[in-house]
Automatic annotation (TrEMBL):
Keyword Transferase attached: yes
GO molecular function, one term: transferase activity
Organism: Luteolibacter luteus
Keywords: Transferase
Pfam families in the cross-refs: Sulfotransfer_3
InterPro entries: P-loop_NTPase
Protein name in the entry: Sulfotransferase
């Protein structure tokens, strides 16, 4: 039977790199970012879904079902487990492990853990400000936009840390910074956890160029053919003006700074202080306010989808 391996992280944390390394062992299968569990698990405001029905009505109905049938949650989880187990086995093509790497699973780690008690769980950390920088450079062509991914940087980060504290005996945590600096040592420890004793042997070969599917890292698979520490600290140069540094200082402050310290992260002096960059900082500030305001008032995807739907079906559609 194929055993699921859930690789949990924020987006742009290096999970595709680790996914590629696991794929090269010959014992693991994977497919981009499967994402299916986001449809089956998770409730509440953080899991808001775009739909033509009222999502709140589904949650109300689910609450009614729970009151009527106390065994609902256990039976539902069993149904999700059995369905996804068949999916993973179908995708694995006889391989021992199937690696499900979906960044937004950071919002539902406890639900996944309860549904798959026999699975392996690997949590990959990276400095969240580095994640914010990589998000901006990858998805917004360098325009500073971490607040568009606040659900990951705030809620996802917090939920993953709480998850790790609750289940630390049964999961494996690894930092991206350590992985690219001491890959042989880190892969040996991860291999011992997974039962893949020769995992570190993949370091002598070129990385596979694809994990299959459409979703995943659009840049790293092209840029790196072998594991490299060259991108570890490059994010620091991107924190280059007053607005970006102010965002970083606010993020790494208070209770969050204490939590990040537990992972070995703080805000380096060369990031917290530096040239003012007045003009570029002002551009970043204006662009960020405009982008967030526009997305709240008029999401860019909605008019395009509505026009296409009307053209193909002949009637209007609305989202609730």
């Amino acid at each position: 039977m194929t055993r699921p391996v859930f690789l949990l992280s924020l987006p742009r944390a290096g999970s595709t790199l680790l996914q590629r390394l696991l794929l090269m062992t010959g014992r693991c299968a994977t497919l981009g970012e499967p994402s299916l569990l986001l449809r089956f698990l998770g409730e509440g405001p953080a899991m808001c879904r775009k739909a033509t029905y009222w999502e709140s009505l589904i949650e109300t109905s689910t609450a009614d079902i729970r009151k009527k049938w106390p065994g609902f949650d256990a039976e539902y989880r069993k149904g999700v487990h059995d369905l996804m187990q068949r999916v993973y086995e179908g995708l694995a093509d006889g391989k021992e492990f199937f690696v499900d790497k979906t960044p937004r699973y950071s919002l539902i780690p406890d639900e996944i853990y309860a549904t798959f008690p026999d699975a392996k769980f690997v949590v990959l950390w990276r400095h969240p400000v580095a994640v914010a920088s990589s998000i901006s450079s990858t998805f917004r062509k360098g325009s500073w936009c971490p607040d568009e991914f606040g659900i990951d940087l705030y809620e996802g980060q917090q939920r993953l840390q709480q998850f790790c504290k609750r289940h630390k005996e049964n999961i494996y945590q690894i930092r991206y910074e350590d992985l690219v600096t001491e890959p042989e040592q880190e892969l040996a420890k991860l291999g011992a956890f997974l039962g893949i004793d020769d995992l570190a042997d993949v370091l002598g070969r070129e990385l596979v160029t694809s994990t299959g599917g459409t979703l995943g890292d659009p840049t790293g698979v092209k840029r790196y053919t072998k594991i490299s520490p060259s991108g570890r600290d490059g994010w620091k140069k991107e924190i280059s003006n007053w607005y970006r540094r102010a965002w970083a200082r606010e993020y790494v402050s208070g209770a969050r700074a204490v939590a990040l310290k537990e992972l070995g992260y703080d805000l380096p002096d060369d990031v917290a202080k530096g040239p003012l960059g007045l003009g570029q900082g002002l551009i970043d500030w204006i662009a960020a306010r405009h982008r967030i305001s526009r997305r709240l008032r008029r999401p860019t995807w909605l008019p395009r989808f509505a026009r296409k739907f009307r053209k193909e079906n002949g009637y209007e559609v609305s989202f609730r």
